[in-house]
Structures are given as structure tokens and as C-alpha cells.
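I have been asked to look over a protein record a colleague put together. This is what I was given:
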Amino acid sequence: MDNPRHREALILFDAQPGKLKSEYVIGCILQTEQENRLEAVIRKTVSEALVGVSYIPAGNASPKKETKPTEDIADLPEDLRFAMDDGI
């Protein structure tokens, strides 16, 4: 196996007792599906919360009247801010 992820997965799979291997795979599949659903809910919720919030990059700032947002996007974790750019 050339893929390091495959090697790591095989090591984890082989570490399971024989009778629990299928339960381990089922658990992994269900956990991944739950994580995917949770991510989708978070993305949707954040998108809805940001409706109407305008963002002006620092280089494009104009001397317009500043409005005070009710929530600051800077309060969001950095990973979440970048994840939102990945195609909501």
C-alpha cells in the first residue's frame, strides 16, 4: 500500500479483535456520516446568521460610514471562517 491513509486505516482495523472488526467499521461509517451532517448544519446555520452582513476587504475599504454588526466574524474560529470560503 502506497497511500499512508490506507496503511494507517489497516493498522487500526487490524488492531481490533476479530469479532469486533465489523462493528468497528460500522461505527466508523456512522461516525463519519454524523460528522458530515453536523458540518452541513453548522454551515447552513452560519450562512443564515451572516445574511446581510457585508464584508469589505481591508485593501478595498472606502471612507463610508461604518455600521456596527451585531456579531463580529472575527469571533468565529479561524477554521470555520476559512471553511465557509470552501463553497457553501
In short: DSSP finds three helices and no strands in the chain. The chain has a mean pLDDT of 82.
